Amino acid sequence: MEIRDVNTIVTAPEGINLVVVKVETNEPDLYGLGCATFTQRPLPVRSAVQNYLKPLLEGRDPRRIEEIWQMAKVSSYWRNGPVLNNALSGVDMALWDIKGKLSGEPLYQLLGGKCREAAPAYRHADGADPGQVEESARRLMEQGYRYVRCQLGGYGGNFRGKETKEDFGPPEGALSGAYYDPSVYARSVPDLFEHLRDKLGFEVELLHDVHERLDPIEALRLAKELEPYRLFFLEDPLAPEEVGWFQRFRQATTTPLAMGELFNNPVEWKELISKRLIDFIRVHISQIGGITPAQKLAHLCENFGVRTAWHGPGDVSPVGHAANLHLDLASPNFGVQEWPGMSDELRAVFPGAPQVKEGYIYPNEEPGLGIDIDEEEAKKFPPQEELPQWTEARKPDGSPARP
Ligand code: MG
Question: Is 321:349 a contact under the CB 8 Å cutoff?
C-alpha cells in the first residue's frame, strides 16, 4: 500500500477559511482527511503541503504514521512553527483516518476505546452588558449545555460599537483598528460573574477567556477576584511569552487555569504540566502537528493531574472537531470540549460531522474520523481573501495590542 496523491482544499462555508488535506492511496476509494486550518495564513499552509510534504510522502506506506510524522517534522530542519505544524497535522490526521478505515473501526477505538459515550461541550455566551450575557447563557442552558463561556462584548474591554479610534484613541493622529481598554475589561469581569452567579446559581459551569489581554499582574488580580464565582477555568490569563508567571499564579490563586491555544512547540508546555502549574491544556491540535503529538500530550497531562480541553472554535474545520472528539472519548483526563455550533452550509460540505444532543457531542460510528468532504459543495465557498480585522487590535493610546 502506498500514498498516491496529496491535495489541499481551502473552503469558507461560514466565511472562515478552513484548510483540509486529503491523502489518497493506491487502494480504490481509500483516502484520509486532516485539518490543517490556520485561518489567518491559509496559503502558506497549502504551499507547505503541496510543495514540500506531498513530494516527501508519495510512494510511502500510509500505515507508518509515527515514522512519517517524525521524519516530516524535521525534514524542514527548522520546525515547530504554526505553518509547518498545520501542514503536518493535515497529513497526520489523514493517516489516522486511513488507519481507522483500514481497521473498519472509529478512530476512538484505535486510541484505546471509549472512556465516555459523548463529550460535554461548552459554548460561548456574550452580550453588551451582564443582563445580555445572562440571556445568552440561558438560551444555551435551555438547549442542554452545562458549561458556558461568558464574555462581555466579544473578548471584553471593547464593548459592542465602541472599539474605534474615536472611542478610544488620542485626539489627533489615532490609527484605525479594534481598540480595547485592558483596565475597563479587568474591572468589568468580576461584576459580570457576580451578576451571573446571582441570577444563574452555581449548578452551571462558567468559564472565561482572558485572551491574553492583561498584563501579568493584572491577570493575577483578576484570577483572585474571580475566586468567589468558582469558574470551571480561566483561559489564557497570560500570553505564551509570559508563562514564567504561572508559578506566582499557582501560589496566589485557586482559580483553575487553562492555557495553550497559541502553543506550537513542546518546550512551551512541558514545564507547565510537569510542575502542575495549569489545570487544563487547550492546544489547537492542528497547531501542534496533529493527533500523534496530541495523544502523547494527553498522556503526559494524565500523569500530572492536568485535563484536556482542546481548542474548538469556528476556525477548526469539522475534520479537526472530529479529531478533537475522538481524543476526548478515549482520554480519561478529558475535561470539556469547546464547541462553536455548525451551520447547515458547513455540514453540507462536511458530511458526517459530529452532532450535539443536550450539550454532549457525539461521533458517528463510521470507520476512521467518520467525516467526509464534498469537494463540489466546498467549491461554492471559495477562500476569503480579506483577512479578519479583529487581529489588528490596539490599546487606548493607539499602540498595537494582542487581539
Ligand atoms: Mg481562547
Answer: no
